[in-house]
Design goal:
Blueprint: H1 2-18, H2 21-49, H3 53-64, H4 75-104, H5 110-127, H6 154-162, H7 175-180, E1 190-194, H8 199-210, E2 214-219, E3 230-233, H9 243-247, E4 251-254, H10 266-289, H11 296-299, E5 301-305, H12 317-334, E6 340-346, H13 361-372, E7 378-381, H14 385-405, H15 409-419
Parallel strand pairs: 1-2, 1-4, 2-3, 4-5, 5-6, 6-7
This protein binds zinc ion (2 copies).
């Protein structure tokens, strides 16, 4: 069996040696792809470990091994977890990649086997106490950053252990969670929605309830809101009064707004800026103050409905001006925000604010949740193709500009630390 594998291995490389330089290049590309593929294999094994009883028993050791700050429960359990979970996981990854390399006669895929072998060696060494350092996603200590977008970091993976074990399966690249819709769990989360009595607000509350969240309505009217587990009334300008409520909220969706259409009086300007931009900004700041240093970075989020008026005409100048202002303020805040801030960049939908809408609010609400579960941070839902083109360009250039010209709090602290 081993001899057979070895000869097949040699055959693969023998074939490689006889081929042209272009083939070496192709195999190099396959070797890089192998890392992505083998990480997907890891995620598949992980999902299976939560579904299939024999693997569940082995994987259980991993989940039992850590306290809430990722420090090991005990040396014994930690070492057993390495042996019963991490080692078989690496062997599975090696096996699948070896079969793939042999079956497709693609030598580059052996890079995936080598890569997985590295994890096997460290798992076995850790299980015997020969290797002290733990892997990057399980380092003990407080959560310092927000969940990674391109790469799974500690805060991202922490949620798999302590927020929802039936989500956040990804090990290194969050691709599998994006495919499965498990990159954000709404299950049991308290989600507050402002503008809850409006057309989209009501649709969001209902979609959130269907998704297993606990929707909480924040509204200026007394109308009944089906699906909401609680209703709080508030007025623009009195955001700080909501602080106690926001303390217990996991996700705040800032969705209220006003559209003065063609009006341009001083009063219309004040109303548009106050409701669409300033009250939204104050509410966001009040919420961000409730993000604690323990788990808040992992579990709390703000979503702000900025609308595609950020980059496209909404045929209502003051609506555009105020929505662009809050859109820009969010980008400014995103440079050092203590939690994830998502934008909802929505096209026209039929509502009291917009009689010209074409999409239905419930379809938009469902799409918002579909994309949020895939951790899309700028959630664009519109039929206007220009938004999909212009919005990312605007965001990228503004992000670069802000990075260049805003003083980072952290950098400022370290500078003042040096001088004092
Ligand atoms: Zn797990
Ligand atoms: Zn883990």
């Amino acid at each position: 069996m081993v001899a057979g594998l070895l000869s097949a291995f040699e055959f693969g490389f023998g074939r490689l040696a006889s081929e042209s330089l272009a083939d070496y290049g192709a195999q190099l590309v396959w070797a890089i792809a192998a890392i992505f593929i083998v990480e997907m294999v890891r995620d598949f094994y992980h999902v299976l470990s939560h579904q299939w009883a024999p693997l569940q028993r082995l994987h259980g050791w991993h989940h039992r091994a850590y306290k809430k700050d990722f420090s090991p429960i005990s040396t014994e359990v930690y070492r057993k977890a390495q042996l019963y979970n991490d080692a078989p996981e690496s062997i599975f990854m090696m096996g699948v990649m070896a079969i793939a390399a042999l079956a497709t006669q693609t030598p580059g895929l052996w890079a995936g086997v080598l890569y997985a072998a590295g994890f096997l060696v460290s798992a076995v060494m850790r299980s015997r106490g020969l290797f002290g350092a733990t892997d990057l996603t399980h380092e003990p200590g407080p959560l310092t950053g927000i969940p990674g977008y391109w790469r799974v970091n500690r805060t991202y993976h922490w949620r798999h252990h302590f927020d929802d074990t039936s989500a956040y399966y990804a090990g290194l690249f969050p691709i599998s969670d994006k495919i499965l819709g498990t990159a954000l769990s709404l299950k049991g989360k308290s989600v507050a929605v402002t503008g809850a009595s409006g057309t989209l607000g009501r649709a969001l509350i209902q979609s959130l309830a269907q998704a297993g969240a606990k929707p909480i309505a924040l509204t200026t009217s007394n109308r009944e809101i089906p699906g909401a587990v609680k209703v709080f009334s508030w007025q623009a300008g009195k955001e700080s009064e909501l602080k106690e409520v926001l303390q217990k909220i996991d996700i705040l969706i800032i969705n209220h707004g006003v559209n003065v259409m063609g009006a341009s009086s001083a009063q219309a300007i004040e109303q548009s800026l106050e409701v669409n931009a300033l009250s939204a900004w104050r509410l966001m700041e009040t919420f961000l103050e409730t993000v604690d240093n323990r788990t808040g970075r992992a579990t709390k989020e703000v979503w702000v409905n900025t609308s595609e008026a950020e980059v496209n005409p909404a045929f209502s100048p003051l609506y555009e001006i105020s929505k662009r202002l809050i859109g820009d303020l969010i980008n400014l805040r995103r440079t050092d925000a203590p939690c994830v801030i998502r934008k909802l960049v929505l096209g026209p939908f039929k509502s009291n604010l917009n009689p010209y809408g074409v999409m239905s609010a419930s379809a938009i609400a469902r799409m918002i949740l579909f994309l949020a579960r895939r951790d899309i941070r700028n959630i664009i839902v519109t039929i206007n193709p220009l938004t999909y083109f212009f919005f990312p360009i605007k965001e990228i250039f503004q992000a670069i500009y802000f990075r260049l010209f805003l003083k980072s709090e952290k950098r400022e602290k370290s500078v003042s630390g040096k001088t004092s």
